[in-house]
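[recover] target loaded
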């Protein structure tokens, strides 16, 4: 049996943290998740008051900044596996700096490979070279992501460019993804809602549930709803689906994050 691993998870999405914890315990049942921290501040506080874990999993982008800032504020030197949704240039920078990574959404195979890599090299501490120029450039590039400003839509034999400022929300319907615009038009989008979520500015758009990725400018009113959820009144509600009464509900596990997003 593999030796027990004492693990710290830094992740600001409760569902993602729970899924990662469950995967870790599935692959290494005798492991112990010491804590789940959801901000830079809470992580720094935990590190200052606890012995170092054997291994840590850090999401890159937290609600109060990039997790790299944790290393600047503490003497944390435990091995780290970053969870990232960023593109290849960022991944290459991690490789150069001997920091491992797994892509989001995390699956069993990638997580197992990352853990096995750690176990084979566990005698070596993975140093985070904050002074290294390529690493600093990586931090700066992640701090200023280049979000999409427009989407190219195919309408019959024609192409139309929809500016991001025209978008009220993105939504899924009958296995397709669509854009709803401020002039109450619906356009079929040739990509998934998951990919779209990664491409738009998270300060402007929020994924309230599996069906809707909504712009802050589309929200008219926020109302309390049953089961600790929130219901949104929006500009041009979707009329594609007859059963749309519950469409604009903020999923219960997202309510806290949604309130923070509204207040940011």
């Amino acid at each position: 049996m593999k030796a027990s691993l004492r693990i710290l998870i830094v992740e600001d999405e409760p569902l993602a943290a729970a899924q990662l914890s469950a995967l870790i315990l599935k692959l290494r049942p005798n492991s112990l998740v010491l804590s789940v921290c959801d901000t830079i501040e809470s992580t720094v506080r935990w590190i200052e008051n606890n012995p170092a874990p054997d291994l840590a999993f850090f999401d890159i982008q937290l609600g109060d900044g990039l997790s790299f800032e944790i290393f600047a504020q503490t003497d944390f030197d435990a091995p780290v596996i970053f969870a990232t949704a960023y593109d290849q240039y960022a991944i290459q920078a991690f490789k150069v700096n001997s920091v491992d990574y797994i892509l989001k959404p995390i699956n069993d195979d990638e997580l197992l490979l990352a853990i096995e890599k750690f176990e084979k090299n566990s005698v070596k501490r993975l140093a985070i070279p904050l002074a290294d120029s390529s690493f600093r450039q990586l931090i700066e590039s992640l701090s200023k992501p280049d979000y999409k400003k427009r989407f190219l839509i195919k309408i019959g034999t024609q192409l139309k460019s929809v500016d991001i400022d025209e978008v009220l929300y993105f939504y899924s319907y009958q296995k397709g993804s669509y854009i709803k615009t401020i002039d109450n038009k619906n356009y079929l989008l040739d990509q998934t809602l998951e990919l779209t979520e990664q491409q738009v500015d998270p300060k402007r758009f929020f994924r309230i549930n599996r069906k809707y990725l909504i712009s802050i400018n589309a929200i008219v009113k926020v109302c309390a709803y049953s089961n600790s959820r929130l219901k949104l009144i929006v500009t041009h509600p979707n009329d594609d689906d007859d059963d749309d009464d519950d469409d604009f509900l903020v999923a219960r596990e997202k309510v806290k994050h949604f309130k923070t997003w509204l207040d940011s």
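[recover] notes: The first strand starts at residue 6 and ends at 10.
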